[in-house]
Amino acid sequence: MSKNLTALVEVALFAALAMVLSFIPDFMGWFNPSFGAIPLVLISLRRGSKYGLLAGLIWGLLHFVLGKVYYLSFAQVVIEYILAFLAMGLAGYLAPSFQRALKEKGERTQALGLAFLAAILAVFVRYLIHYIAGVIFWSSYAPEGMSAYWYSFTVNGTAGGLTLLVVLIVLGILVPTSPRFFLPNK
């Protein structure tokens, strides 16, 4: 199988896994972590930004196919289900440096730091997009007397922080124990 085809199959599998993880029941209401972010950061660090962005796009589009879209307006849907999910692929921009550090035995701490930085970048940008959408589109859901800015910050900030926490925990386990996962042969 060609390198490109192998990578595309991996992208499809990781996007599908992200979607499956999106079906974990909401146990904290709007404040739930997005477990689907985990496979998106992993594929981005494994295959780079091009494939990470593609996986994010597929994950976002799968929400439409499976009826998991909260629709307020066309612009809101594009922002929250296309742009926000694409943002997860930004982790892949650090993949070359991350993989170089992984290959150097003495640079494992640097590799872990780069993986964490990649996750922070992707999750921050995704939830910044959700924050902006929250202010613009979801402000009417804010409790009486609460500003749209604070409401969106508390909802999206909490969800983003919890998402980042679970992604960092997984990276903290996988990078030291399974570095070869991030270094594909094909």
TrEMBL record:
GO CC annotation: plasma membrane
Spans through the membrane: 7-24, 30-45, 52-72, 78-98, 110-129, 149-175
UniProt-recorded Gene Ontology molecular function terms: thiamine transmembrane transporter activity
Occurrences of domain Major facilitator superfamily (MFS) profile (ranges): 1-186
Record-linked PROSITE patterns: MFS
Keyword Membrane: yes
Record keywords: Membrane, Transmembrane, Transmembrane helix
Keyword rRNA-binding: no
Protein's name in the database: Energy-coupled thiamine transporter ThiT
Species whose genome carries this gene: Streptococcus acidominimus
Phylogenetic placement of the source organism: Bacteria, Bacillati, Bacillota, Bacilli, Lactobacillales
Primary gene name: thiT
